[in-house]
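Encode chain A's predicted structure.
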Amino acid sequence: MRLPVLIFDIETLTDLKSGAHLYGLDLPEADLEQALIKLRRQESGMDFQRLALHEIVCISGLWIDAQGGIKMFSFSREQHTEAEILKKFLSIFDKRHPTLVSWNGSQFDLPVILFRAMYHGLSAPALFDQGEINQQKRYNNYQNRYHHRHVDLMDVIAMFNGRQFQKLDDVAHLLGYPGKRGDGAYHVPEYVRQQEWQKLTSYCEGDVLNTWLIYLRWSLLKGQLSLNDYREAVQRTIEFLSTQPQHADFLAVWRETSQRTEFTAADFLSPTL
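Encoded structure for chain A:
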């Protein structure tokens, strides 16, 4: 495993202002979202908006340093504008060059970040340069699908075959991890509407944690981690979460779901856990 590692996820809402501009709509804000949903259904048969119309409300990340230390962070609309969230996240790549890990990041998270960074007039060569500035990034950059500067786990586990894509929640459950927890519904718009910022960041960070655990299992599969190293990383993760009150529920559910597979049943065998 090439350290440091940054596992990340974003949460978004429909950008109503941009949607109104794109479609030439002059409607009250209360009616805009339904109008945009109807137009999208006519275009594509689905509600999921074009990537350029996704406004970022949260970016969460889990940073694993070269010594195996763990740090969790979230930038949300509680304290920052979308432009400020992006600046904070993009500045990470100016200082460090981590292995980036995501679930569906190649098709959703990074393209949305690209669109929204352009919308706000931001520059991020450390993340988006493909060799035009630094020739070493010509074949090893965060956009190259088949190298591991950015590991999109949904993509690599499907062996780059879209017909084999799986949901993060399903794979997490299959492997003995918590998954979404609760009713599994998508509550982000309601969290933002009600200004329930801790629920928003906990939701986003939960996806990051599931992605990290799956990444550890994938690294074990690939031989990038020995079984002992894998077990140590799992124990460090459990110890870290025990110091994070906002993830007490994640840890409790993981303790339960770990018993559903023979392999993960060992995750909580230590008497201190």
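The radius of gyration is 19 Å.
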